[in-house]
């Protein structure tokens, strides 16, 4: 099993987020669940990767060539896959994964999370999506998603496309136990 973990590359965030990333990386490695991420060597991505690797886990990083040219890639990963652009990066990470976990992050993380939720709504990605809501970080986004349901921009069934927890251990349990989404959901894509 492989899980794609979306998360921040920022180094200026609170320690509570780094602690959660390290715990998640260690737990995934202990469960022999491979990590797919964006291959950054800093921030939560670096902390997650380092913790998993220290436990003997595997981490596959997917990164556009221009980022490698900038030296932004982690050089100690189990595997590094270079791609041409951000679109191919996201497609590759989704294709290689059996589940998604979203840790807190900025625009890139939020964009990845919303895109994979959209793919699930359209039946293009059917695997579990777990939002790891550390320190209530995702509360505003979750409120917006629920507002979209309340205002009929999304169907009520769509709120079941993601699951929320504030525990790394629970996130690992959820990706192992949540069912694959029914491909028939496509018929609910339109309101």
What does the model show?
This protein has 191 residues and is an alpha/beta fold. It is 42% helix and 16% strand. The protein contains 7 helices and 7 strands, in the order E-H-E-H-E-H-E-H-E-H-E-H-E-H. Strands 4-3-2-1-5-6-7 form a 7-stranded parallel sheet, with helices on both faces. Helix 1 (15-30) packs parallel to helix 2 (43-54) and helix 1 (15-30) crosses helix 7. The protein is globular and about 45 Å long. It starts with a strand and ends in a 14-residue tail after the last helix. The model has no long low-confidence stretch (mean pLDDT 95).
Record the SSE blueprint:
Layout: E1 2-6, H1 15-30, E2 34-37, H2 43-54, E3 59-64, H3 65-69, E4 79-83, H4 86-96, E5 99-102, H5 107-121, E6 129-132, H6 139-150, E7 163-165, H7 168-177
Parallel strand pairs: 1-2, 1-5, 2-3, 3-4, 5-6, 6-7
Secondary-structure-derived class? alpha/beta
Poorly predicted tracts of residues: none
Net shape: globular
Most strands sheet: 7 strands, parallel
* β-strand number: 7
Distance between the termini: 34 Å
Q: Level of helix content? A: 40-55%
| CA radius of gyration | 16 Å
Give a short summary of the structure:
With 191 residues, this protein is an alpha/beta fold. The chain has helices at 15-30, 43-54, 65-69, 86-96, 107-121, 139-150, 168-177; strands at 2-6, 34-37, 59-64, 79-83, 99-102, 129-132, 163-165.
List keywords for this structure.
single chain, 7 helices, seven-stranded parallel β-sheet, globular, alpha/beta
